[in-house]
Each structure stands twice: as C-alpha cells, then as structure tokens.
Amino acid sequence: MIHESIRDMEFDDYLALIRDFTDNELIAREPEMVRAGAVPDDLVRRMAEAGLFGITLPTRHGGLGWSVEQQALLTMEFTRASVVYRSRFSTTIGLASQALLDHGTEQQRERYLSAMAAGECVAAFALTEPEAGSDASALSTTARRTTDGYVLDGHKRFITNAAWADVLLVFARTDPDDAALSAFFVDRTADGVTVRLPERMNGHAEGPVAEIELSGVRVGPETLLGGVEGRGLRQALRGINHARTHVAATAVGQATRILAEATGHATDREQFGRPVAEFGAVQAMLGRSYAELEAGRALVLDCAREFDAGFPPRERISAAKLYCTEMASEVADRAVQILGGDGIVGDNPVPRMWRDVRALRIYEGTSQIHERNLARALPTLLETRKSTS
Ligand SMILES: Cc1cc2nc3c(=O)[nH]c(=O)nc-3n(C[C@H](O)[C@H](O)[C@H](O)COP(=O)(O)OP(=O)(O)OC[C@H]3O[C@@H](n4cnc5c(N)ncnc54)[C@H](O)[C@@H]3O)c2cc1C
Asked: Has residue 386 got a pLDDT over 90?
C-alpha cells in the first residue's frame, strides 16, 4: 500500500525521497540481499509503501501519475541500487500494467490496476518460449476455445517474477494456423500451472527468472486481454516500448553507481606513491565513462519527453535501449579494470553489477535486434531528420 503522505508530494520532493530510500535502504541492504540470495520480503513491502509499484499508473487507477520523463528520472535514481530490486516491480509497472491500461476492458482495469499500483498484485509477462526468443511470433502456446472459455497449453521460459507473481499475462495462439496472438490473465496458482526456477543465474542472481509449464489450464473468457482475440502482439508492444525506455534509464542508473564506485576506489587506492586516479590511463577510462554516461542520460530523457508528447517514438526508444545498455556494460568493464584484483576477488559491488548489467543487452530486445530495427528504419529516420533541421 502506498504511504498516504506520498500522494500529496510535488515531484521534486518525491525524487528526493526516492534518492534517500535508494541510499539508506536499497543500497544499504544490498549485502543482506546478496547473502540471502533474494530480496527480503519486508523490503518489497517498503518499496510498495514508497510508491515504486505506482509510478507508471495514473492517479485514477491508484498510481502516482508521473509522466514518462519523471518515471525515467526516478528510475535513474533507484537503479543506482541493485538492478534486482527494480526487477521485482518492473514487469508489474511496465510490461503488464501498460498493456492493461491501454488495451484492457474496464472490468480488467478495475480488477487489477489499483492492486498493481499498491504492490498488492504482482504481474509477470510471459511471452518468451524455448523456440520463440527474439522471434516472438514463433510462439507455440495454444489457447483452445471451449464452451466456457479457453484451455491453455505450452511452455514459457526466462519469465521475470513468475515464481512469486499473483498473475501471469500469457501470450498464446487461439488458432495454430493464424499468426495472430492473444493475451490472457492466468492465476499463477491455477490448476495446470507449474513454475520452475533455474539452478544458476549469471547475473540477476537474487531475482531469478522462471520457466512456466501450462498444461490444460482452464481460464474464463473474461481473462482475454481487451476481450478480443488476435491483438496480443499490438498489446505486448505497448508494454514493451514502455519497458525498453525504463531499461535504458536503468542502464544509466547502474552506470552512475558503478562509475561512482570506480572513482572512489581510484581516489583511495595508491600505487607508485599516488592515487591511481592520477594516472592518465585510469583518467582516460573514467573520463570516457562519464562522457558516455551523460550522452546516455540525455538520450533517455529526450526519448521520454517524446513519449510524453504523443506516442512512443519506437526508433528512438530502440536507439536509447541499444546505446545505454551497451554503455553500461562498457562502463562496468572499465570499472572492474580500475578495481584491479578487487574487481575479481571479494565483496565489492562492482563485479556483481558488471554481471547484472550484462543481461540488459539481452532482455527487451537484444542489441542485435535493435541494430536491425534501426538499420531498417534508417532511410525514413534520415529523411525526417533532414526535413526538421
Ligand atoms: C534476465 C532475463 C529476464 C527476462 N525476462 C523476461 C520476461 O519477463 N518475459 C519474457 O517473455 N521474456 C523474458 N526474457 C527473455 C528475453 O526477452 C529473451 O532472452 C530475448 O528476447 C532473446 O531471446 P533468446 O534468449 O531466445 O535469444 P535468441 O533469440 O535465440 O538469440 C540468440 C542470438 O541471436 C541473435 N539474433 C536472433 N535473431 C536475430 C536477428 N534477426 N538478427 C540478428 N541477430 C539475431 C540475438 O541477438 C542473440 O545474440 C528475459 C531474459 C533474461 C535473460
């Protein structure tokens, strides 16, 4: 439940509150989270009280009503802490709730949105399958029509929050011969739903993704998103464009913290009688990282403002997601180098974050998919640029 005092806050005050929350609770409790191998339940409750599940939803649905630009600024703050914290609410506030907001029936919005904003309903977004990764249109999960709804059968993998979500937004085909997809709200504890966690994660270790087996899962007609079959891909894209903007902002947040940690280490660590920060080779890594970080920050905010002005700027979102996630990996890699052996041995947060940011280049469209999309759109993009300059 969002703390009542937050609802009356001006944005700058809320941003300051989230900055303090990030430093004093999220970052402060990282060692405990890493030791436990999971985000502590009471911290998830604190995130809900601080309004983090509600930042993307309008006030009429129980959210805080922030613009996309404000959401990006907030994301850059709270993702200075482990990216795993963000994962706990990302699928609820982005992928699932945004598709629901724009495409759900009134009854579906009533049922889920304010509970999502309060952190009382966690949603997972189940699109990816073993044979359908970058090519989501290849998915083979089926939703067979019956007299009283649908029966779902299929196998999903790499699904964030699936192990503890209340509801799964499952993409399936109502007609195996038709390319069109449909989306269904499925109770995670429904008969026929089995969720399995992986044995090992390389990065995001405290927030593992899960496999979902759907075997003869019966759902009613009211669970079909928007009440109309065949609109799943369009509905998914609404959430995906929003989530990609947030992932780009996340990469900026992560790089900000990583660079701060590397700068602190370079200033404190002395070799050859002086701080390693005074060596030109180290300065080159730090200076380049800062320039790239600031370029990423500007691109995300520019993109978010365009989002607010009308409809999602698809190609700019692709560019921001591609650039910022690659940038965060570069910044993290240089930071490990600056730490020397402390980047490999021991409890410094940088190597953990280096592993975490690697995944940002894979989910919400791999870097190669964004490169492909941008290359395809380039003739039009260049033409538009000419006519506006
Ligand atoms: C931590 C994590 C969380 C995730 N969370 C979710 C979630 O909540 N819900 C969900 O549905 N999915 C989720 N995913 C899945 C994610 O969206 C997919 O991993 C991603 O789309 C890539 O699919 P794939 O892993 O099958 O790789 P593949 O598609 O098999 O790609 C393998 C390689 O081939 C390249 N490639 C593929 N096609 C092309 C092409 N046309 N041109 C050039 N290169 C290409 C890729 O870039 C990649 O390098 C998550 C994944 C991870 C790692």
From this structure: no
